[in-house]
Amino acid sequence: MTLTPTRQQSLSVRYPERTVTRASRAFRCSPFKLPLFVAMRSNSIPLSAIAGQNGLERNYTQRPLKEWVAESNLVWLIQVGLLRREVDGQGITDSFRLTPLGRQLVEQGESCDVGLPAPTLGERLTNTLNRWFRLPV
Q: What span, in angstroms and rounded, lies between the C-alpha atoms of 86 and 91?
C-alpha cells in the first residue's frame, strides 16, 4: 500500500485494485443501502438499528432483515475491509463503523448521480462464492 495526498491535503491509503474490486462488489451485493454507510461514516451504528423494521424505516435496508442475517452480512463486509466493529471500554460492541476503504467507496457512491450501480448476475455469483469459500478474488 502506498500513501498519496488527496485534494484535502490529508493522507489517503491506496489499496490494490483487487482489494477495491472485491470490496466494491461486496458493497453493491449487500442488502444494505447507501444511507446506512453514510451514517456509519460519522457514527457507529448498532445492529438493532439495522435489523428488522428499524433498518427499513431508516432506509438502511432494502427489506426487513432478521438480526442474524444482518450480522452475517455485516461480518462479511468486515472481512472484505469495508467495516469494523466498534470497541468500548468493556470490549467489542454490536455497533459498526466504516474503515478508510469503506469511506472511499461511500464517497464514490455518493458522487454517482444515479447511486450505486446494481451488481450483475456474475458479480452476485462471484460475491457468493467468495463468501462461501473465502476466496481472495
A: 9
